[in-house]
């Protein structure tokens, strides 16, 4: 059962106030010194957000009309102007979005530029992209997984304790617990996996596994299997931003490990907080259908959420 975002933050805050006491001098720092907790560790408490296009596509991409395209008939061309070529157009379901459905261009956040897929997996990724409207877990408000939750276009909040670090994501009220002490293995595979953390100098290192195979890395169909392991690194650079790296290891899908890297920025608004984004309320009809409608496959009346 999910804990609501507000209750999660309230409980986590109460649990960590005693564990993390920020030095007044550090909290007022306006120079290159990163704020420190009472134990000398970097203080990561606060609301953070990524500013790039990685949530559309981790790899470099030009601006395009829409996330899902369909092949269109070859255009007619006068004789002598060469062969007509098939073009791609936005899928019918999203053409009405116009410019709102457009995808801005962006640089690759993948170290080395390209994700090293196995041949079969590259074909699967391309098929996922073509069927984006039907397959992307984000559309159905499922928890986004790791590392996708970090660079979605929504803020997230870190609540730093000694034995646990808690991360609350605005999207789908998703939460993560980073265990900084010794814990056993997760009894089941989950959307957000099982995370263990440690400090390497000023860098917070998080190793996560025990994922299910239902999440994607972005809206471009990049995917993984349940063998996924992720090592994340949060390194303070200034009082206002961190460098974030995530190394992906999944021998079932990729030919080798690969890494993404990007800055993460502190939100500086006074009293900045997360808002509840309970997107499940927006997708009930998509997932369960209209109450009272006839299911064309079974002929039975859909009871919806009655």
Shape: globular
Low-confidence stretches: 15-31
The amount of beta strand, in percent, is 15-25%
Determine the N-to-C terminus distance: 20 Å
Please summarize the sheet with the most strands.
9 strands, mixed, barrel
Rg for CA atoms = 22 Å
Number of strands: 11
Kindly report the spatial arrangement of strands forming the biggest sheet.
1-4-5-6-7-8-9-10-11
The topology string of helices and strands comes to HHEEEHHHHEEEEEEEEH
- Percentage of helical residues? 10-25%
Question: What keyword list fits this structure?
Answer:
two-stranded antiparallel ribbon; 15% helix; Lipocalin; 7 helices; 306 residues; alpha+beta; globular; 2 domains; nine-stranded mixed barrel
Q: Which helices and strands, and how do they pair?
A:
Layout: H1 5-17, H2 24-27, E1 46-49, E2 69-72, E3 87-90, H3 92-95, H4 119-130, H5 132-135, H6 148-151, E4 156-160, E5 164-169, E6 175-179, E7 194-200, E8 203-209, E9 229-238, E10 241-249, E11 258-266, H7 284-288
Parallel strand pairs: 6-7
Antiparallel strand pairs: 1-4, 1-11, 2-3, 4-5, 5-6, 7-8, 8-9, 9-10, 10-11
